[in-house]
Structure formats: structure tokens, C-alpha cells
Design goal:
With 371 residues, the chain is an alpha/beta fold. The protein is 41% helix and 18% strand.
Length: 371
């Protein structure tokens, strides 16, 4: 298969972890005889510094010419600490979501058995957690009209949803639920918000099209507690933009490290894949950032194009790295590997899937992993 992939590495640790993701994809292309072409473009703080905008038109054009987008991370503290600026790196991500009409953010939350001790929950509570979150991404409070009154003492943010915006992501969530445990939980605040009431009415009506799926309705405050108290009770979660932002961040804490979590943002025509962690500026260029989230984002990219065998090859390699404790310091404080060396091992294992003996010392030295 031939794929043109736009690479928007962004800021902070974004370029470091994205490099490892690209490395894994290149290994897949070599082993399975695919042609993957990578096209770099600017976004975020890096784009502001070089082009004066967080989302240059050239970046938009590159993304639209490519088959898909591999995204790193954006953000820089110097923008966060300036209350008078009207230009933020994050506008680049919001902008690309809008430009590509990426209305559905899909985030798997899986607590792996070999990382149970890293979860803040007791192992018996965390074990078996496997949630798939569908967050609406291009409407709601993030994109409504906003502003501040002339006296500077009153601010407002408008939240608007059209029924079609709800239906298109709800269909994706229902179809995913049909293939999993046939349970969908709608999380909203319909006891207060009119937009949430529209979400609830719409999802209840749509449930008649999916009779095998059990629909659970839950307020966000109740859900926030239950994600911690009983995460295994969830399977597929469906929610609006702002609520999804909060719930998915909370759920990500269960796995033991945000550095290993991936996500997909899908639209009718375009797609984008990214790790969920931020730009983590204090770790920039220190080789301590976990690249697994970025690499698993490449897995979701391959699955999106029905390259399941290739996706499984990366997943096996990530699992082997975890089993051998060949990880960065967030998961292995005693003897961590660098960001680059984790990526090297995973790419090497993709290219050598029959490898059974490993020279661990050589791996730490950055030499061949094969005996």
C-alpha cells in the first residue's frame, strides 16, 4: 500500500516521540513491502515563531493532500504565561480539527497487566479496564462564540450543538459498541444544560437502530466518580466536546502513564493520529519522554487503513518492550532507556519478529538487539 502521511511534530517532546512513531512505520513499510511517504509541516508554537501563526496555510494544504496525519504535541509555557496574547499554540490543533472536519476523537483506555503496579488504583480495581471513549471534537463550547464585555468584567462562551453533529459521532460509538460488549454509556449534564438534553433525546432515539446495544445514561459528576471507583463498569463512552476532554483526561490516569496512550481523530474524509500527552516542555530534548503513545497512535493509523497484521506487529513489539522493562523513566525509574532507544528496540523487533534471545546490555548501549 502507498500512503502519504503528513507529519506535524509540533512542540516540546512532540518531535522526539513522533520520530519514534515514524521509525516504527518505516520498519513496517520495509517488512511488509509498503510505500509510506512522510511530509513534514509546522504547527503550534514552532509555527508561530517561524510563520507568525499556529496553523500556516501550507500546513493545511499538506494535510489535505496527504492520506492521513501523524501529530505530535503542541504548547509552550511562554504563551500560557502571557494573559494578553491572542495567539496560542493550541489554536493550531483546534484549527486543524476544524479544517479537516475531524469530528470524532477516539481514545482507548486500557490497563495492561504488565503495568498494573503503575496504576494509582489497586491492581484488583484496575485489572481488566478497557474503555473506548468517543468525544465529539468540532462543536460545543470550544467552538462557540466567545468574548469579553467592554468593561472587562464580564466574559461569555457559547455552547451550540446541531442534531446532525450528535448523530454522526453517535453512529460511530454505537457501531463500536456492537463489536465490543454491546454497552454504550452517554455522559452528559442534562439536568442543567439544554445541549445535553438534545444529546440525550437524540441518543435514546438512535438506540432503536441498535437494539443489541444497552444504553446507559449518566451525569458527568456521577461518571467522574465511577471512572475511579469502578472503571471496569464502562465499555464504550460517548460524550460532548468539553465533557469528553475532562473524562478522557481522568480516565488516562488509570493506565499508569499518559505517555503510553494513543488517540485517533476521524472525519468523513480525513484522519489524524496523536498521543494524548501534551508537549511536556520540561522534558524537551532530554530523552526521557515515553514514545509508546506516539507509536501506538501509528497502530491506530494502520488499523484505520485496514492494515491489521501490520498494526499487530507494532503492538507485539511494544508488548515485548514492556515485558522486558525496556521503557523510559516514567515506567522504569531504576534503569530506564532513552526515548530513542525504546524506539530503536520496537523498530528492530518489527523487523525481526522471530527474535527470542536479547542482549539487554547491547540494547542499553544502543547496539544490536539480536544475538
Amino acid at each position: 500500500m502507498k500512503l502519504d502521511i503528513a507529519v506535524l511534530s509540533g512542540d516540546g517532546i512532540g518531535p522526539e516521540v513522533t520520530e519514534q512513531s515514524v521509525k516504527a512505520l518505516k520498519a513496517v513499510a520495509e517488512f511488509y513491502n509498503h510505500d509510506f511517504y512522510f511530509h513534514e509541516a509546522l504547527v503550534g508554537a514552532t509555527a508561530i515563531e517561524k510563520e507568525g501563526t499556529p496553523l500556516p496555510q501550507a500546513t493545511i494544504d499538506t494535510c489535505k493532500k496527504c492520506d492521513t496525519v501523524l501529530f505530535g504535541a503542541i504548547g509552550d509555557p511562554k504563551f500560557d504565561n502571557d494573559p494578553h496574547t491572542n495567539v496560542y499554540p493550541e489554536q493550531g490543533l483546534l484549527g486543524i480539527r476544524k479544517e479537516l472536519e475531524l469530528y470524532a476523537n477516539i481514545r482507548p483506555v486500557i490497563v495492561y497487566n504488565y503495568l498494573l503496579n503503575n496504576s494509582p488504583l489497586k491492581p484488583e480495581n484496575a485489572r481488566g479496564t478497557n474503555i473506548l471513549i468517543f468525544r465529539e471534537l468540532t462543536a460545543g463550547l470550544f467552538y462557540g462564540e466567545k468574548g469579553t464585555k467592554e468593561d472587562g468584567k464580564v466574559a461569555f462562551d457559547e455552547c451550540i450543538y446541531h442534531i446532525d453533529e450528535i448523530k454522526r459521532i453517535a453512529h460511530l460509538a454505537f457501531k463500536a459498541a456492537e463489536k465490543r460488549k454491546k454497552k454504550l454509556t452517554l455522559i452528559d449534564k442534562s439536568n442543567v444544560l439544554e445541549t445535553s438534553r438534545l444529546w440525550k433525546r437524540t441518543v435514546i432515539e438512535m438506540s432503536e437502530e441498535y437494539p443489541s446495544v444497552n444504553v446507559e445514561l449518566m451525569y458527568v459528576d456521577q461518571a467522574a466518580a465511577k471512572v475511579i471507583l469502578n472503571p471496569k463498569s464502562f465499555d464504550v463512552i460517548l460524550t460532548a466536546n468539553l465533557i469528553g476532554d475532562f473524562i478522557s483526561e481522568e480516565a488516562s490516569a488509570l493506565v499508569g502513564s499518559k505517555g503510553i496512550m494513543a488517540s485517533a481523530s476521524l472525519g468523513k474524509k480525513y484522519s489524524l493520529f496523536e498521543p494524548i500527552h501534551g508537549s511536556y516542555p520540561v522534558a524537551t530534548n532530554k530523552g526521557i519522554a515515553n514514545p509508546v503513545g506516539a507509536i501506538l497512535s501509528a497502530v491506530m493509523l494502520l488499523e484505520h487503513f485496514n492494515l491489521q497484521e501490520e498494526a499487530n506487529a507494532i503492538k507485539r513489539s511494544v508488548t515485548k518492550a514492556m515485558e522486558l522493562d525496556l521503557t523510559t523513566e516514567d515506567l522504569n525509574k531504576e534503569k530506564p532507556l532513552s526515548t530513542e532507544k525504546v524506539g530503536d528496540f520496537i523498530a528492530d523487533y518489527i523487523l525481526n519478529p522471530d527474535m527470542t534471545n536479547f542482549n539487554i546490555q547491547n540494547i542499553y548501549l544502543g547496539q544490536s538487539t539480536i544475538i
